[in-house]
Amino acid sequence: MATPRSKAGTKGVPRQHRQQQILAAATEEFGTRGYAAASLPAIAERVGVTKTLLHQYFGTKEDLYLACLVPVGDRLLDTVRTAMGRDGTTAHTPLRVLQSIFTALEGQREAWFVLYDTSLPADGAAARRAAEYWSAIDALAAGGTADLLRAAGSDDPLDADALKYVWRDLVATLVRWWVKHPDQSPEAMTRRCARLFAAAAALTSDPADPFR
Amino acid sequence: MATPRSKAGTKGVPRQHRQQQILAAATEEFGTRGYAAASLPAIAERVGVTKTLLHQYFGTKEDLYLACLVPVGDRLLDTVRTAMGRDGTTAHTPLRVLQSIFTALEGQREAWFVLYDTSLPADGAAARRAAEYWSAIDALAAGGTADLLRAAGSDDPLDADALKYVWRDLVATLVRWWVKHPDQSPEAMTRRCARLFAAAAALTSDPADPFR
DNA sequence: TGAGGAACTTACCTTGCGGTAAATTACTTA
DNA sequence: TAAGTAATTTACCGCAAGGTAAGTTCCTCA
């Protein structure tokens, strides 16, 4: 062995394994910092590898992002779909959806934010793909929120649009809080959300509302 | 006059006026793109000026950010303070707070996001100042949410923390939606929020909740 | 009319990033 | 044991951003 003057050469890690490591590190980095602020050198360093390897395995930065996005998007879309489709929309459907999301995200919570990154190059393939995912998810949610609004006496389409946004960001918020509290299990989170919903209901049930 | 071979030299715009222009453009750029993704050349171009001038008037990029942050933070903190302090916490306090925020933000809606930028250099003065602002605002909100939770039968401090986050991000979400719908007046937004609250109440008032 | 200061730009430097071509080392197998 | 291939690095390019020093033009007023 003697004197390895260069650190080049294989380290015995098979390609597939390495790719998985890279995807995991990249997902975490993209999820926490966002596409624009995330840097390939930083991701590479996490894995203990050079950024060149990232390029060789995944191509450009956006390609790598896409490689992170697709599995996460597929998994979440599928989760939400089955959570909502079980039976008709009921009052606790939202909680069931939340629970399924928490469960699907356990082990890699930041992955959620890979789906909703605003700093993506707007014209790129990654942004297009992400938009596909959340428009599909939104469509699922839209059914529930529309019913809700009709029941509450509103037929304004902008109300529906706004509610869609609120719901989507509410999930993001809860996940963000969850990321900061790693000890919380998915089930504990779901129960917490149920309590929060109950508290919120108290807030909004005042009949003497001057803003109506 | 003849041939001005260089475009250097004054354009007759007094320093204070120019500084205002720069602050406005920078606030918009920082608010929409975020600190990391925003670029000084882009801001300079909006104003029709060179980035060097930004440096001469405001110093470093972070200094400029701070110069944007302080007036916005002062204004919003003040607004929320008076909106909450008018009398005791009632059920429609949240709507009053929202209305005051919308009103204060009218004319420069993206400014809200200057307060809550996650891409700031974590150790810098700007991040510290921003944290001061929203911890002050959170403290105001904490009173209301704590009461809410107690009423709903929860004494878990983590519930309170989570609710604080949710409320904060809810405001951000509503403002973000508002930015995308420039024709909506602050009053119209407030009324819309009242309707959304009502709809949300319907969602959370199911007594047969299996997640409790 | 001719300083002097105020408002602005030109030209430059440095750094860090995304990206590529060409090695270099280790593992396998004929 | 030598050849071939898989895994990885070294060394480089170009670019755009943040930042600075030194001018250049215009306005004002003694």
Overall spatial form of chain A: elongated
- Summarize the largest interface: chains and residue counts: A-B, 58 and 58 residues
The structural class of chain A is mainly alpha
* pLDDT < 50 runs, ≥5 residues of chain A: 207-212
Instruction: Specify the number of helices of chain A.
Output: 9
End-to-end Cα distance of chain A? 80 Å
Order of helices and strands of chain A: HHHHHHHHH
Q: What kind of assembly state do the chains in view correspond to? A: homodimer
Strand residue percentage of chain A:
under 5%
Largest beta-sheet details of chain A? none
List how many beta strands of chain A DSSP finds: 0
Q: Mean pLDDT across all residues of chain A, rounded?
A: 89
Helix content percent band of chain A: 55-70%
Q: Radius of gyration of chain A over alpha carbons?
A: 21 Å
What does this structure look like?
Two copies of one chain form a homodimer. With 212 residues, the first copy, chain A, is an all-alpha fold. Chain A has a domain at 69-203. In chain A, 70% of the residues lie in helices and 0% in strands. The first copy, chain A, has nine helices and no strands. Chain A has helices at 15-33, 40-47, 51-58, 61-85, 93-105, 111-115, 125-152, 157-179, 186-204. The longest helix of chain A is centred in the middle third of the chain and has 28 residues, at 125-152. The radius of gyration of chain A is 21 Å and the shape is elongated. Residues 207-212 of chain A have low confidence and may be disordered. Chains A and B meet through helix 5, helix 7, helix 8 and helix 9 of A and helix 5, helix 7, helix 8 and helix 9 of B. Chain A binds a DNA duplex (30 and 30 nucleotides) through residues 4-15, 18, 39-41, 49-53, 55-56, 60-61.
